[in-house]
Amino acid sequence: IRKQKHIPKAHYGGRHAVTMLPGGGIGPECMGYVREIFKYIGAPIDFEVVDIDPNVDNDEDVQYAITTIKRNGVGIKGNIETKSEASYVTSRNVALRNELDMYAYVMHCKSYSGIQTRHKDIDLAIIRQNTEGEYAMLEHESVHGVIESMKVVTASNSERVCRFAFEYAKRTGRKKVTTVHKANIMKLSDGLFLETSRRLAKDYPDIEHNDMIIDNCCMQLVAKPHQFDVMLMTNLYGSIVSNVVCGLMGGAGICSGRNYGEHYAVFEPGTRNTGTAIAGKNIANPIAMISASTSLLKHLGHYFHADLIRNAVTRTINEDRIMTPDIGGTASSSEVVKAIINNLGR
Ligand code: ADP
Ligand code: MG
């Protein structure tokens, strides 16, 4: 979805440069699979790989990564670890999204028929405010034993992400937008977000708008997920709801997510997990990162290559049923990738 005003122009020969941040845990191995697939189909992408050392306290690596994304306009990332527990060292993932002003996060979840799940045929999209709210990272100890943490909701960012959600619904032919909130308790902050969405909804008479309290929303999601179409929410609710939905889809390794701002876009696995415990064992599900790579190709206008990969992934899961153990299969990560590559040639 091209909300971005500036899609980077291809270089000479129709190729695009893209920043690749493998991150920690299973990130590097998953990026390896993406490169293998891109190479196989000759996708016109040149990756600029930036490794970020999780053990270093200064943010030079992160600043460099941000500079290359500013230059290329586009990135793909794994989860970047922040090992330091020093309170002045903030999450690098959050720093990256905030500094690039990628205010909207999109996670489109569509069930695979080949994956056994409680609910079939889910097809919904989560639009999440991505740069403020509970992730403002403004915490302090006002007096000894009292911690205050600020949740920041601004009219301008609420308006941008709500507009994004309705435009997304319009462009993708969706019927309903549900604002998820806790405005009954957080009357000012969530109240502003809810009011903004209600006001903007009036500009879209063909799209139904309703709202739901976050706690009820979680219950409704696990019980009756088909009532949802586009879901719109602030940052922390988005983190929780997107993980609930990934669980409904079969797990952490399937869906991908997209960070958008006016100028930059960065693609990543939907649950934003590091997967430290399963790294290096050839068991990580490669689908989430491969999905992120097809979103990246689409964003840059390389639809042919994007569809090729998407179709090969769908065949591998739904027809061949070659899957990693997390979604009920017995294949290793590399066997899944091999099956996808076989399907690319079909
Ligand atoms: P950790 O905190 O140890 O890094 P995460 O929070 O990253 O673990 O991941 C949460 C859960 O999701 C873990 O059980 C992890 O194994 C699982 N998981 C995350 N990504 C994948 C993947 N690509 N394939 C399979 N399982 C995954
Ligand atoms: Mg984790």
Give an overview in words.
With 346 residues, the chain is α/β, with parallel strands linked by helices. Helix content is 38%, strand content 18%. The chain contains 10 helices and 12 strands. It has helices at 27-41, 60-72, 92-99, 155-171, 189-201, 214-223, 235-249, 287-299, 303-319, 333-344; strands at 16-21, 45-49, 74-77, 104-110, 123-129, 139-143, 146-149, 176-181, 208-213, 230-233, 256-260, 265-269. Strands 2-1-3-12-11-4-5-10-8-9 form a 10-stranded mixed β-sheet, with helices on both faces. The chain has a two-stranded antiparallel sheet with strand order 6-7. Helix 2 runs parallel beside helix 3. The radius of gyration is 20 Å and the shape is globular. Adenosine-5'-diphosphate (ADP) is lined by residues 25-26, 251-253, 273-278, 284-285, 288, 326. Residues 273-274 line the site of magnesium ion (MG).
